[in-house]
Design a protein that fits this description.
It is built from four helices and no strands. By secondary structure, it is mainly α. α1 (2-13) packs antiparallel against α2, α2 (17-30) packs antiparallel against α3 (35-47) and α3 packs antiparallel against α4. It is globular and about 35 Å long.
């Protein structure tokens, strides 16, 4: 996962948001409890105007790790 997160960050920095989103979606599907991947994915979705997708991503993350977030 660390390598995937690093690659996603690199893609994001180089303006390849779609590639970064694809990597993070795949990682989140395999590891839904990975908070860093979910948060990065939601952030990218918001940046790209995909607010509903970001909400769904955060809701799924919250469902797997409810104690991670403060209300």
């Amino acid at each position: 996962p660390e390598e995937v997160l690093a690659l996603a960050t690199s893609l994001r920095a180089s303006g390849r948001r779609d590639g970064s989103i694809a990597l993070l979606q795949a990682l989140s599907a395999r590891r839904p409890e990975d908070v860093r991947a979910g948060m990065q994915l939601a952030s990218l979705q918001i940046e790209g105007g995909r607010t509903e997708d970001a909400i769904a991503t955060l809701e799924a993350l919250l469902a797997t790790k409810p104690d991670t977030f403060l209300a």
